[in-house]
Design goal:
Elements: H1 2-20, H2 24-31, E1 35-48, E2 52-56, H3 72-75, E3 80-88, E4 94-97, H4 99-102, H5 107-119, H6 121-149, H7 155-183, E5 190-202, E6 215-222, E7 231-235, H8 252-255, E8 264-269, H9 274-277, E9 286-291, E10 300-303, E11 315-317, E12 323-330, E13 338-342, H10 344-350
Antiparallel strand pairs: 1-2, 1-3, 1-5, 3-4, 4-7, 5-6, 6-7, 8-9, 8-11, 10-13, 11-12, 12-13
Length: 359
């Protein structure tokens, strides 16, 4: 009798679990609109001391000082565009994503960059000396033309020449400042940052044809640890978009549970940014699934979910639709083994922010 009673209870319990576990389709439908496409337009900025600033577009091992652009106006016109994924986590418009989506520069890169800059200081110095000589030659030619012919020029021509000469003077002074800093250059004097031109999101099932289709967001908190690739952004009006009625579930009690190998997990994100997402109905978010492939380490967990660039910052959800990790890193040569930063670190970051009610 007791055995039969036990079996009946077990059957009821199993039935309860099955009935309370949402299907993959339910998880997708319930969360798809909470996941957004992020677009970041930016350049890298390097400061030599307090006065001199230069810009560069792409960081690589081949980068040299001669690739730096000391003219801010032209540098900001030749910018990078990167895509990532984010997801709403609170009613006041907070969005979670990866740090490298919002701030694509690692602290560890700064040391390598400084070594490269110091090692190539003489190259930049030589180039700037040549540029200064060229500018001064141009100034002499303009002055000669002014002395010889300006009395016959119309006022508009005089204004244009004066403006041109003034720009040459400003350029020469900027070069002088840079040369002064370069001569005194030391690794500790070099600081690298990201100059954001625009950072915004687009909603699932909306059309993105121009800059105005991305809604601007601001960085709220970025992890200061290289191991924790998480950033929190926020809408400028601190509100959810009108048609977003729910956010990704962050259950702190669930985040304390151990993830087990072969546990099923889902990712909702924008692989390849707009390339795959674009359709006649607007951009469409995708869901992929896999299983936990390895016991979690201190900061991250490995899973067998196929991903492509653009999926950085995507939520990794368990079978109940709860956040367990934030996708951030793929294994080179494989699209099916990827890492996510454990969701508990997002909870920790939120604790330091005011009004961080998530669900």
């Amino acid at each position: 009798m007791r055995k039969q009673h036990f079996l009946s209870l077990s059957f009821v319990f199993c039935l309860f679990i099955i009935c309370c576990t949402p299907s993959a389709d339910d998880i997708f439908k319930g969360n798809q609109n909470s996941v957004v496409l992020l677009r970041h337009n930016f350049v890298y900025k390097v400061s030599f001391g307090e006065k001199s600033t230069a810009y560069f577009k792409t960081y690589s091992d081949d980068l040299s000082l001669t690739d730096l652009n000391f003219d801010k106006e032209s540098a900001l016109k030749d910018y990078n565009t990167s895509f990532g994924t984010g997801f709403f986590i609170s009613s006041d418009g907070k969005i979670a994503t990866n740090k490298h989506v919002a701030f694509p520069w690692q602290n560890s890169d700064t040391k390598k960059f400084k070594e490269k800059m110091v090692g190539n200081a003489s190259v930049l110095q030589s180039k700037l000396e040549e540029t200064r000589e060229s500018v001064e030659d141009s100034m002499r030619l303009v002055k000669q033309a002014w002395d010889n012919y300006s009395r016959d020029w119309e006022s508009q021509t005089k204004d244009r020449v004066e403006k041109y000469y003034g720009n040459l003077e400003s350029k020469r002074e900027r070069i002088k400042d840079v040369l002064m800093q370069i001569r005194q250059i030391q690794g500790a004097d070099i600081q690298v940052s990201v100059e954001t031109i625009s950072l915004g999101y687009a909603l699932n099932n909306t059309h993105v044809a121009s800059d105005k289709d991305y809604v601007e967001v601001v960085p709220l908190k970025i992890s200061d640890k290289d191991e924790i690739d998480i950033a929190i952004l926020q809408t400028k009006d601190k509100k959810l978009p009108q048609n977003i009625t729910s956010v990704i579930k962050i259950d702190e009690s669930k985040l304390k549970e151990d993830l087990k190998v072969n546990d099923k997990v889902y990712m909702i994100g924008y692989n390849w940014g707009t390339e795959i997402a674009k359709s006649n109905q607007g951009i469409q978010v995708q869901m992929t699934q896999g299983t936990i492939s390895q016991n979690p380490s201190e900061f991250r967990v490995l899973y067998s979910i196929p991903t492509l660039p653009g999926s950085s910052g995507s939520p990794i959800l368990d079978q109940r639709g709860n956040l367990v990790a934030i996708n951030y890193l793929g294994i080179s040569g494989s699209q099916s083994f990827n890492y996510g930063i454990l969701g508990k670190y997002l909870i920790e970051m939120l604790k330091y922010l005011p009004n961080s009610q998530t669900n």
